[in-house]
Automatic annotation (TrEMBL):
Gene3D superfamilies: 3.40.50.2300. One of its GO terms (molecular function) is carbohydrate binding. The keyword Coiled coil does not apply. Pfam families: Peripla_BP_4, Peripla_BP_7. This is Substrate-binding domain-containing protein. It comes from Candidatus Faecalibacterium intestinavium. Residues 348-418 form the MglB-2 periplasmic binding protein domain. It comes from the Bacteria. SUPFAM superfamilies: Periplasmic binding protein-like I.
Length: 427
């Protein structure tokens, strides 16, 4: 019965696309046979488009690019709640300080010094994490656009103006908390969130700041692990990251302080699921808010949808010494949405998807392996394009023939650049 409704809805969508200038698309649902890419004649501008990981927005002000987010009626963004995650990240570091007060201050000067690896100063996730850490540790200062998220460079004496010294009281003793150093981790070719740059930075910082550094904080695990391996593991300095990449979670057993899971298992599912639903012509929340015909469904404690920004956001979870055993494999599909769809009711469709930087630890070690598992479960044939993390053209050059695909999933190099892609689809 459900299948019959799906078929009717799919047929209705075909008609409505044709009515708005799309053309006479032949879909699996209306013919009962799997379509090949060649038989699909829906205009590229009307095909499902999901932005993920980098939300179309102004990289200076953070303002959302609503033209890109509502490019057509099947356009969405999938990410995670950056503020909720950032708050957890800050709290995790603060709690660690509170519970390790007797050992944390390595040189006993009463100042708990931390260094911070900022990923990409124009990325909303990075900005939120810098703010979350500074707010929790009392080092934040307010600027014209909210809490200042600029890097301080080196701040040995606490005189930097983009942060202030904070205080934390533990067992009746008041410690000063100081952001001793922070910088964007961008390499000379322009790639951001760059692990190699972070590994070099900690070596430089340690040479001058040495045992003033009590904690290392990183806005992702790729950079965090580079710093841990280059310096903090050997010096027993707790290091905190973000993403719950498998190598970072495993390192918690060896002194890595903790990380945050941004529920990549839920995000990767949503990225492909929205495409599946749009192509099937069913309610967009099928298998998300409501169970699909295979029983897949998400509960609202792992994600939410924000209508105004057309964005689905996964919720974050802190991963620390207490629970890391449950997070050791970051590439397992999320249990409640891991059932195979029936290939007759949901025939194969082809999707173009890019990863903005093939060298990004989170995207390559966690997100893409998850996508590759879900594409099988959802009967999608996905072409994965790996970018160089530096130039949009390196990716858009490989979107030469969009007509070959039924849908698109896009991860931009720079959040301001949505039109580099939509221009190709609008032609
Ligand atoms: C992740 C980072 C990653 C970045 C790429 C963020 O959400 O946490 O690890 O480098 O996305 O855009």
């Amino acid at each position: 019965m459900r299948k019959a409704i799906a078929l009717i809805l799919a047929g209705a969508m075909t008609l409505s696309l044709a009515a708005c200038g799309g053309s006479s698309s032949t879909t699996a649902a209306s013919t009962g046979t799997a379509p090949t890419a060649e038989t699909t004649t829906v205009a590229n501008k009307d095909k499902p488009l999901v932005w993920f990981n980098r939300q179309p927005s102004n990289s200076t002000t953070g303002e959302l690019d609503m033209a890109a987010l509502s490019f057509n009626e099947n356009t969405y963004y999938v990410g995670f709640d950056a503020n909720q995650g950032a708050e957890l990240q800050g709290q995790m570091v603060k709690e660690y300080i509170e519970t390790h007060a007797d050992t944390i201050d390595r040189n006993g000067d009463g100042v708990i010094g931390y260094v911070l690896a900022i990923g990409d100063i124009g990325h909303n996730d990075s900005i939120a994490r810098t703010r979350g850490v500074r707010s929790a540790l009392g080092t934040a200062v307010d600027g014209a656009n909210g809490i200042v998220s600029d890097p301080v460079g080196v701040n040995t004496d606490g005189s930097a103006t983009s942060v202030q010294d904070g205080t934390i009281e533990v067992n009746g003793k008041t410690y000063t908390v100081r952001e001793l150093a922070s910088q964007e981790m961008k390499n000379s070719a322009g790639a951001t969130w760059d692990a190699g740059t972070a590994g070099n930075a900690i070596t430089t910082w340690a040479a001058s700041l040495s045992d003033q550094i009590d904690i290392v904080v990183s806005n992702n695990d790729g950079m965090g692990m580079a710093m841990f391996n280059a310096w903090s593991r050997a010096n027993s300095v707790p290091t905190f990251g973000y993403d719950a990449n498998a190598d970072a979670v495993a390192a918690i057993a060896e002194g890595y302080g903790g990380t945050i899971s941004q529920h990549a298992d839920v995000q990767a599912y949503l990225t492909l699921r929205l495409i599946r639903n749009a192509l099937d012509g069913v309610d967009i929340n099928t298998g998300i808010a409501t169970a699909d015909d295979a029983g897949n469904v998400l509960s609202d404690d792992v994600y939410y949808y924000d209508e105004a920004s057309r964005s689905y956001y996964a919720l974050n979870v802190a991963v620390t010494g207490e629970n890391y055993q449950d997070y050791l494999d970051s590439t397992v599909p999320y249990g409640p949405v891991s059932s195979q769809l029936d290939a007759a009711a949901h025939p194969e469709k082809s999707v173009w998807l890019d990863i903005y930087n093939a060298a990004d630890n989170f995207l390559s070690a966690t997100y893409q392996p998850l996508l590759q598992k879900y594409d099988d479960l959802l009967n999608l044939k996905v072409d994965y394009i790996g970018g160089d993390g530096q130039n949009e053209s390196n990716i858009t050059n490989r979107l030469g023939n969009p007509s070959q695909y039924d849908a698109f999933a896009i991860n931009m190099v720079k959040t301001d650049n949505a039109t580099s892609y939509t221009a190709l689809l609008a032609q």
